[in-house]
Design a protein that fits this description.
The protein is mainly α and 306 residues long. It has 16 helices and no strands. The protein has helices at residues 3-14, 22-31, 47-62, 64-73, 88-101, 104-123, 135-148, 154-160, 163-171, 173-182, 184-195, 203-217, 223-241, 246-255, 267-272, 279-304. It starts with a helix and ends with a helix. The mean pLDDT is 82.
């Protein structure tokens, strides 16, 4: 029963910073393609709205969520572990394979590298460190350490690299630039604005609409695709209103990680599927939490970003 909450916690927790997941990086990549916003979002800009959501999620699993898990998954059923590759026997087998596969020193070096990168990520938000470190340089430092010490071979690093995500983030800024230069972004922005009162459209209302729309779409599409599609449109709307697009990009980055009500919204959902979960389990368990988190993120966005 703990695998589902753990997977959801990984998704929500990953949305608390700029580097926790790939969809906020995708949204940030689009933002950086616009003049005046080359620096993009800050490392912890998303924390303002996602930390409260993470706290609410913890409370949910300790109360309503636990009862839902018990009702939907039926842990007392003799078929509870049917199709679960993470059952006790499989875990012990996997642990033995991992213990014999790598020496202990590699684990220590990897752990030290991770701690160093976390510290640098935090410091990069403050001067004078901000002038010398950014996400890219810190990532390169970490990669150089684990590759240079032999913790992982270059061949394995290349084979494990998620090329679809790599190519997506690398090329996604072109979508925003294309919509901006062609006038397509302005056309879509004006159409959306006209639905909500044109130039007099309520920023609060639009923020809630963006949060709800992103949260729903990310459960139907992939989180990266959702961020890539909505970010340039929302940036164009913000610029048409004469306001900074950063708050809405933060909302998109955060809400694109709320893919917790379907089995295919994020890579984490796919990773916990071998535990024997069905699509209906995600809907019944993750659906109520999704509704709660949409409300929390919408309220926090209006309260803390504007």
């Amino acid at each position: 029963m703990v695998i589902f909450p753990a997977g959801t916690a990984a998704i929500i927790g990953g949305a608390c910073s700029l580097i926790g997941s790939t969809s906020q990086l995708a949204a940030n990549s689009v933002l950086q393609g616009y003049a005046g916003y080359e620096e993009g979002m800050g490392m912890f800009d998303m924390t303002k709205i996602m930390f409260p959501a993470a706290v609410v999620q913890i409370i949910f699993w300790g109360t309503i969520g636990y009862k839902l898990l018990d009702k939907v998954l039926k842990p007392d059923s003799p078929d509870f572990d049917k199709g679960n590759m993470y059952s006790v026997a499989e875990i012990h087998k996997l642990e033995k394979e991992q213990e014999s596969a790598a020496p202990a020193w590699k684990g220590y070096v990897a752990l030290g590298t991770m701690i160093l990168c976390i510290v640098l990520f935090v410091l990069s938000g403050f001067q004078p460190f901000k002038s010398y470190f950014n996400i890219g340089t810190i990532g390169l430092i970490g990669a150089a350490m684990v590759l240079g010490t032999g913790c992982i071979s270059i061949k394995k690093a290349y084979s494990d690299l998620p090329w679809d995500v790599f190519v997506c983030i690398g090329t996604i800024s072109g979508i925003g630039t294309g919509l901006d230069v062609s006038g397509g972004g302005a056309l879509i922005a004006n159409a959306v604005l006209n639905l909500f009162g044109g130039k007099n459209a309520s920023v609060v209302l639009l923020t809630v609409v963006i949060a709800v729309l992103t949260s729903v779409l990310t459960n139907i599409m992939s989180n990266n695709a959702t961020a890539a599609m909505l970010t340039p449109i929302c940036i164009a709307i913000a610029l048409s209103l004469g306001i900074s697009p950063i708050p809405w990009v933060i909302v998109i980055g955060a809400c694109s990680n709320l893919a917790i009500a379907t089995s295919f919204g994020t890579a984490v959902n796919m990773q916990i599927l071998p535990a024997g979960y069905k699509f209906s389990d995600f809907v019944k368990i993750g659906g109520p939490l999704l509704i709660i988190l949409i409300a929390v993120v919408s309220i926090c966005s209006v309260a803390f970003l504007f």
